[in-house]
Amino acid sequence: MGKYVTNFRIVHLGCALVAAAALMPSGGASAAPARSTTPASVATPAAALASTPADAVTRWRRQNWPQARGWRQISGVYCFAGGEFGDHDHQLRSKYAPFHEYDVQCYKTTSENRGTERIVVGALDKSGQPSCYSYTPDHYRTFRQIGALRDCAAA
């Protein structure tokens, strides 16, 4: 077996660092330098805001849970509030309706590719806080509880 040299390229994606490795034969002039293969069209989450569901709850709570659909500029990045969520598959408890959706990730620019992570919250109570909270990592296929917060998902 021959020896190989591994070159690492660090790409900053939000709060995570991803290392892309290119294996090249060691020594000799025939070794080509590694080229970037990151597509330019991929929206990169901004580093200014953390990207966990709990952090998204905190971010949107500070924005007073906007009900209208659209982009919001928050701390120099763009975050999307999706407006009312219909729950057509009846995965959430109807007693908490109406539901609203919010993106977990924020971006440096507005983008059509917003990823798949969302938080869905139930109707706001008299104090302006949601009646329940759920996280979906896969664009509404499954829902998960966010920490100790009341879960919207049907049992």
From TrEMBL:
It comes from the Bacteria. The keyword Glycosyltransferase does not apply. SUPFAM superfamilies: Microbial ribonucleases. GO terms for molecular function: hydrolase activity; RNA binding; RNA endonuclease activity. The lineage of its organism: Bacteria, Bacillati, Actinomycetota, Actinomycetes, Pseudonocardiales. Residues 1-31 form the signal peptide. This is Uncharacterized protein. Keywords: Hydrolase, Nuclease, Signal. The keyword Magnesium does not apply. InterPro entries: N1-like, Ribonuclease/ribotoxin.
